[in-house]
Amino acid sequence: MRKYTQKHAVSGLRETLPKLEVLPNQFTGYTITIVIPEYTSVCPRTGQPDSGTITIEYEPKKYFVELKSLKLYILAYRNLGIFYENAVNRILKDFAKAVKPRWARVRGEFNPRGGICSIIEATYGTRPSS
Description:
Layout: H1 6-10, E1 22-24, E2 32-42, E3 49-59, E4 63-65, H2 67-75, H3 84-99, E5 103-113, E6 116-124
């Protein structure tokens, strides 16, 4: 296996990806959950394919994400060398920057490789208590 380097650590964080587009929101006080069951990328260290489910849950403020742009954005990860942790946090960062939600959560549930499953979760803002 190749030696782990700083280049591996930041892989996928700075590459240009398709822009997330937004549409004006007409309502308040509701949650949107988007499930993307066919997420794929590549491990930057081993070159092995990674796959899993990405779930984005958020409360829109002025905007909500346009789904076709989200699809194209997620598809751009297909050949991108990026670790699970970086992918989930980058998706959240890019999503929050574009949509500016009240709060958001991105959860990545990655398929087993070598008998290990990983679940990574990142949040933006604070979800109000129910």
